[in-house]
Amino acid sequence: MEARWFIDAFEQKQHMNPTLLQLAKLDFNMVQSIYQKEVGKLARWWAVDLGLNKINFARDRLVEHYFWCCGLAFEPKFESFREMGTKIICLITHIDDVYDVYGSLEELELLTDFAERWDITGIDKLPDMIKTILLAMYNTTNEIGYWTMKEKGFNIIPYLRKEWAKLCKAYLTEAKWYHKGYKPRFEEYLDNAVISIGALFLLFCSYFLTAEKITMEALDYIDKLPTIMHCSSLIVRLSNDLGTSMYELARGHNLKAVQCYMNERGVLEEVGRQHMSDIVHKTWKTMNEAMVGDYPFSEPFLSASPNGARIAQFFYHYGDGHGAPGSETKGHLMPLLLQPIPVIS
């Protein structure tokens, strides 16, 4: 986004270097052509190999998910992360919608049990729609595990299983709140919602899919949820809630951060929304300070945390740019992924 903005702004300058401008345009278009090939490959996987775009109750957001992964690691050499990270986030969104709008509480408890045990024996107890999504999650995760073993000599599947189990348990907690009519306290909501937003899972993927060498030390450190990851996920969650609360409440979702704070403190929505914005501002300061810490990992994973927060604020700045994307999101994605910059020969 910044590159395209700078190119457009540079072109308007009176004393610009035309050779440098042409080079910038060519570079941008070359990277964009790589993205287009990656999106095409993912579209075939999503619509042909899996066919999950036909599930009508779930959000079909392949391009948005791909762009989210571009925001975490944009360099051409990180194609594997963008491909597999997009697959993970597509499945996260579909599973989220199973818990939010489709499955009964009994079915959701079964689904969570399958995810925790990583065993699909008895899967026929689930409805076909849920069964299809569960199998897609199971098979895709194992494929990613196979790739990681082949390319990096590390069995990542036990860690992926753990991430799926944590995510599904967080979804189940929210489903139980909804079915029981329970209104969680603000801190109680946030503790669970930082996990259920799915950002921590994607950040975890950004480590093992971009690191030159996966180490147990780094994995153990990441598992303890360092400050930079927690801050990033908190910003993603609150940005999501600020942008989507009215839309998601209409779909039958749980109360979001604003509503939980309003109920607990007895304040108006305007006050609640301002409090969330204040938390986001303070969290950015905390994350910026934490970026200079001593960690058992390096780039690009280190920058993935602030990048994840940035991309969230991009999507939710004008409302629900992910759950119900409108003209603002499409207006950004078109020039970045589909429209090359004209180059004068």
Automatic annotation (TrEMBL):
Gene3D superfamilies: Farnesyl Diphosphate Synthase. GO terms for biological process: hydrocarbon metabolic process; terpenoid biosynthetic process. GO terms for molecular function: magnesium ion binding; terpene synthase activity. It comes from the Eukaryota. The keyword Manganese applies. Its cofactor is Mg(2+); Mn(2+). The keyword Metal-binding applies. Residues 49-286 form the Terpene synthase metal-binding domain. Keywords: Lyase, Magnesium, Manganese, Metal-binding. Pfam families: Terpene_synth_C. Belongs to the terpene synthase family. This is Terpene synthase metal-binding domain-containing protein. It comes from Jatropha curcas (Barbados nut).
